[in-house]
Amino acid sequence: MGKLGFISLLVAVLAVLFGERVYNLRKRLLATRELVKNHLPNCVLLKDLEHGTEDITILGDGLAFISAGLRFPGYPSSDEPGKIFVLDLKDSRMEPKELRMPRNFDLETFSPLGISLYTDPNDDAVYLFVVNRPHPKCQIEVFRFVEEELSLVHLKTIKHELLYSINNIIAVGVDSFYATNDHYFENYFLKTYVEMLLCQPWGNVVYYSPTEVKEVSQGYYMANGINISPDKRHIYLSDVFDHNVHVLERKEDNALTRVKTVAVGSLTDNIEVDPETGDLWVGCHPNGFKLFFFDPNDPAGSEVVRIQNIHSDKPQVTRVYEDDGHVLIGSSVAATYGGKLLIGTVFHKALVCDLK
């Protein structure tokens, strides 16, 4: 074979491999899935939340915490720094209130992603853990919530070499948590383009405490949402590109062991857990192609999935809410309280609906 023939063959092989990667990526993004409408009654868009409400979590008294204003390359965002809002779901007015941030905190680079609450059983103090992604950095901010003043007191910033691409977090103590790394590479080009095309199971879960930081589970295509069961014995993890939710058992040394996997049929994002029923509420992306390659004229849709009896032999997966993007774009989280469903998005608005 001559030099020209070899080059031609090499180009053909590379073209086939590239085509196969693109086909696999489109398949994992559910690029051909048609978006539908399956709305709930009495849905209302929340005021003052126009530029993303990526994660939401709710205290037992119905006070919802909302991370707002994520700034991420490639997506629409506000020029203003990120914010944390609270919404009293017992108040019929449904008016989000911005929490006052401390003066000693760097607000200009604040770009909040996943959040988690922890209530100290010793004194009922409420701690808010926030994944902060000031491009291209990644760190965890720990605050104490002062309800009387509707403010946050910044306690510490946590950085570690194993916490390099944190997406979400679940606090299990005053200064300990599990966190998901959604990518393997730290470089923006490599993780956004090369890693997506390769689509290998390189995501993982990291356990952090002041005395120990370690990888505790790995082998995920894009580890994303994470939460904990009401009895604290299991961790729930969503894998975006594999369209499922994993159930992992906690060990005494804080390691995690996979117990089962529940197929969802959508690109799973953040997970919230009903403390009374144990049901999982998952914000999902029904067509990831439209989300990743954002076109305002052909918006990404939204979907909320409920998983009941996840530890049984036959978990029940129900699509509770679906929209084609004309009401809500890019749903990332859903949480319930008192018959209400609160839905947040990556870079769009927030919606509250009646469940019945």
Give the quaternary arrangement of the chains: single chain
Please, how many helices?
Answer: 3
Give the terminus-to-terminus CA distance.
71 Å
Q: Quick one: biggest sheet?
A: 4 strands, antiparallel
Secondary structure: number of strands: 24
In which order are the strands of the major sheet placed? Answer: 1-24-23-22
- Beta-strand portion reads 35-45%
| Helical amount | 10-25%
Supply Rg.
Answer: 20 Å
Unreliable stretches (pLDDT < 50, length at least 5) are none
Question: Overview of this structure, please?
Answer:
By secondary structure, this protein is mainly β. 12% of the residues lie in helices and 42% in strands. It has 3 helices and 24 strands. The strands form 6 sheets. Strands 1-24-23-22 form a 4-stranded antiparallel β-sheet, with no helix packed on it. Strands 2-3-4-5 form a 4-stranded antiparallel β-sheet, with no helix packed on it. A 4-stranded antiparallel β-sheet has the order 6-7-8-9, with no helix packed on it. A hairpin with a 2-residue loop joins strand 12 (203-209) and strand 13 (212-220). It is globular. The N and C termini lie far apart (71 Å). The mean pLDDT is 93.
Descriptive tags:
mainly beta; 4-stranded antiparallel β-sheet; globular
